[in-house]
Fold each of these.
Amino acid sequence: MSDVDLTNCDREPIHLLGQIQPFGFLLAVTGQWMVAHASDNAQAFLGCAAEDLIGQSLTDVLDGHAVHEIRGRLQIMRGADSVERVFNLPLRAGGEPFDVAVHYSGDLLVIEAEPSRTDSSLEAASAVRSMANRVAERKTIEDIVHEAARQVRALTEFDRVMVYRFDQDGAGEVIAESVRPGIGSFLGQRYPASDIPQQARALYERSWLRIIADIDAETPKVRPALGPSGGPLDLSMSMLRAVSPIHIEYLRNMGVGASLSISILRQGKLWGLFACHHYGPHHVSYERRTAAELFGQIFSYMLESREQEIEARHVERARNLHDRLVSSVATASGPESLKPFLGELCALAGCEGVTLHMGGQTASHGGGLDADRLRTLVAFLDGHPTLGVFHTHHLAAHLPEAEGWRDAAGIIAVPLSREPGDYLIFQRAEVIRDVAWGGDPNKAVTVGPLGARLTPRQSFETWKETVRGQSKPWSASELAAVDSLRLTLLEVVMRLTDLAHAERGKAQHRQEILIAELNHRVRNILGLIRGLISQSRDGATNVQQFFDVVSGRVQALARAHDQITQQHWGPGALRELIRGEAEAYLAAKADRLILTGPEVLIEPQAFSTLSLVVHELVTNSAKYGALCDSRGQVHVSWRTDASGSLDLTWREDGGPEVRVPTRRGFGSTIIERSIPHELGGEAQVVFDPAGLQVALRVPGRFVVEAAAAPDHPEAASAPDGRVAGPEHVLVVEDNIIIALDLEGVLLKLGAGQVSLASTVTAALEALEAARPDFAFLDLNLGEETSLPVADRLLADGVPFAFGTGFGDQADLPDHLSGVPIISKPYSEKALREALTRRS
């Protein structure tokens, strides 16, 4: 292994040192339970030299009961970094008990053991519970970490216990401490990121606890140096792993004789450490170390929970501000509309000033940026692509021109649109502060006894540095609150833009709805075609047959799509659906398909599904059934029942004898399962020898009786297309542009008065104030639905209709399944028909 010094210590293989601490011994065994590695000091514990142990079966080395216990622990081991422990386990018959830890290192099982130490003063579960309860009683993060340090010192009896937190730049700071009197304090001191290299931090995230019992102890080697895989044994998860020479020198320079580290993790990442120092050798029993490790895990969860509570309170404040922002700007325009809220935004982020720059206009609060500095900063932000919020507490490090910007040393910049230059910028002033370092982190490197290593840090006396040009760092909760407002601000800006350009916005909005609907339907169709291709291949015996099957099914979808689009996405005629499929596939045989039934229309949501089913019935009949020769006929009849549901019967006769198929192809699956699965209807297939019989039932919400014979006479219409009434219409729609558009159309059609509501609460208040003659409800209102309003209208006997944005048939409760549904974009014809049949 090459020498390690300050130039490459981040690459030092600290997990591959090939040595262990001497307070225990190590064995590594293969999957066949043969000893592959042993530490030199095994002889002191087992009476057998390491070289003699290698190659022996573990059952010859340890007592059978001990091997049984170890095997049992492997049964409950979970995860690559899992470590299982057994306490007070005799390894030899009649021998002294050991505390044993087992874990996997690649394909090898590592067994580490140290003599059990009687610790009658400790009852681990009670101790940890008491420690956690005492910490939980504290209210602030500062009090929590100080109490935790005190509890860990009481448990481990180290001279000094520090809570060491890592900053964003990787440097560490002692934020809490419990120390033996008379040895000074490190509280508030910072240490550079290089003091704990990256590979050490990675191990802290994998293993919760690390002990160094005596920095001057001789470290036995692990034999052989190289294992069966050709490399040294990986001791990443080892409790006995020896210590890097660099770290030993570091501790010596601090005067430390023993140390213990307990990881503090947040969401699996290293937040900080309990760093325990003793000014002489100090070994902690394995049982007590296990209790400390458990407390570290519990404390990590407690700390994360407290920090999340703080973040949640900030986010809740942001949510409340969101509600007021959205409601207050509903009828306003321009950045000046946001100006009354800038003070609250400033308080939410905990800053001194905020500047809003949008559409070339500027508004500010609390000492915003002047025009020149704003122009410089906006140019920097436009050239600094980011997916979301940009933040820094040291702007000059990113933008040298900001050197000397005392009132904007730190910023959070929130992009408000895709347009360059539109930002909400939070500003924090410079905070001149003295930072206490544990020794000068910038000292020049000199050659010491181990080369160019940690000798520059021989002194850990406090070294103070005055920091200028930086603001107070932004906390995680402040950043979370600002980020949660980003979408709100984007929504507000969009509304302001729409309201500022009302006429243009109205036309643009209609276009966006049409594009969204087209996009939605195209995606659905592409997904359906993909499924057809995937499922059709199983029954095909050659490429041409596969092509014909897929082509026929896709053409059926295309014909259904054409028929729906001809009706402007309104209901399509059932008779035309069946006739079109017959003419496309049967040609001259189409007249042998006899249709009987009233004129009914099928809603677009069900039209494509029914067209696929009819296609499969037609093609099946032409290939194998009544229409495969010159004699047979197919009778298709349908009717609607009292609930409006459609019952359709397909009956073949005169064709070849029908036999029950031995396997179900995809075509049969479409016939039997499409309508039940997609529409909630029914399908029954009977393989009668005289001819195939199929009974289909389509729920009434997908069926519309043709206007040729309406149940109710059409209301008298004025020459300009107006209908007779209703006098008062309630519109529940959360988009103001769509709501205003509906209001205009309804008034044009003859409504005397139109009331608008954007939420369920507002709609129910409107119903309390006045009973309408008709209501139109957008089914989806942002985070809520209009179903409570529908129930109230139903109870009051007020006729109403639902609207939906993408033509999807909603999963309505049974008692609302008969309510008419109109698809967006709402046409004048559809609204007129809804008003006409409102009774």
Amino acid sequence: MFKYDVVVVGAGGAGMMAALYASKDPSLKVAVLSKIFPTRSHTGAAQGGINAAMGNRDNSDSAEKHFRDTVKGSDFLADQDAVEFFTTHMPELISELDYMGVPFSRDINGKVAQRPFGGASSPRTCYSADKTGHVILHALYEQCLKNHVRFHNDWYLLSLAVDNGHFEGLVAMDIRTGNVHAIQAKAVVIATGGYGRVYWSRTTNAINMTGDGTAACFDIGIPLKDPEFVQFHPTGLASTGVLLSEACRGEGGYLINKDGERFMARYAPDKMELGPRDLVSRSIETEIKEGRGFGDGMGSYVLMDLRHLGEEKIMERLPQVRELAMDFEGVDLVKEPVPIRPSCHYMMGGIHIVDHKTCATPIEGIHAAGECCAVSIHGANRLGGNSVADVVLFGKYAGQGAQQSAKKRSFTSTAKLELEKIKWTEKFDLIRKKKTGINMFEIRDKMAETMWYHVGIFRTEDEMKQAYLTIEDLLERFKDAYIGDSSESYNMAFINYVEISNLLKLAKAVTLGAINRKESRGSHSRGDYPTRDDENFLKHTLIYNEGEYYRLEYSPVTITKYQPEERKY
């Protein structure tokens, strides 16, 4: 049995930051599990930048303005104590990343360059061309290697072992061999990213964003907080959903309908294309619904036009965006506009965090950071540039929190951990030998279609109740799923099987939370309840997994300085 003081699950920005800070105590043995090679983690897909009130481009910017913008952007559902902690500590963290060797773009004075992003009152998004997440990921990996963090690559989390509220460790599969391992640990940091693949083909998320850590926590009794809040990025490529960074609009890109209008003048006359993501996404979908888009059905789109920026500026600041448009749409955006449509991008909700300074969950020894959890600083809608900031800042504090837990807790019983290992070993053996059953990919595709059409950008009670019944039926049918691969080594069909199971559980929670939130707030837009209802719903959703039954509760939002007001841009 493997034995570590701290295990981090996930090697993206949050996971590697957590491992780095946990390993700053050389007496602790720290390991990272990742189902892919660390520098391929999804943080590397973050293009546009990372928010911090450095004041390099606008010396009137401040942490207080960043605080205010984030709370307003969240449609007042963010916990303000956590937001203030976040915005206050971000400038120092940018300096720390700079010192680690992150190659930020520079302004004419040699300071870290900053650009405008949606919903921000100042240009505070620090960047490295349009490859910000990629360069941060590589710098963190180097630092972890320097600190002798042990990496288990191509390992997949199957479950967490908790006995009567006591965390014992985790069970994971070495994908290369098919061996199931028990790992005893004093503390764990879950940093497995989001679960946007519940919308499968209509998402900017990588194919491995399947909510593994979120589902594992959900299964042991940790509630999901605010899962109904799903961010749809305005500018996914029309045919694939692949992300074109908000930097496109930050640098001055236009959104154009089939009549040639910059239609955002109708929806956010002051901010135009730099309105918050939920507003811009709904505006695009409204243009399409009202017949001012191009194409038909799922192939409908509007255009994003960057030609007026000129080739030099595009190649300096948006080279990867240009490459993506050429590779996936066959469009050179130096010469012509690119077809775009909203695409599921980010989950504001996730694992319930009870202390933002340590990223602790309700179970001692289990911490979480990044998109898999809800601190909550994003509330009902995340501002662009706050995600990479979230993963590195709270990754740091999750690592420190796990370090404290590891020093406080001791290795004890492994009875539940050993039972979990036996359960998964037997399940792997049973599933891979199964000869007939329901095709699991048909179930996955039906889930995605149901979520996109009925729990998507626009929502109504009848459609969501229909979706809930469909998801429950799919969960039942999944019991007879068939993977069609009997191999032990590199059995990716079995990994897909566990991932789809996780996604179905999370899709059900997203839908339940959305049905019961009878208002429109941030990314949650209901045609039958079109206004925000602070009297009844200025509160966090908490959903508990009690087997086939899900229990729903609510908890208060922490409000310190900014009372809710109408959100206008």
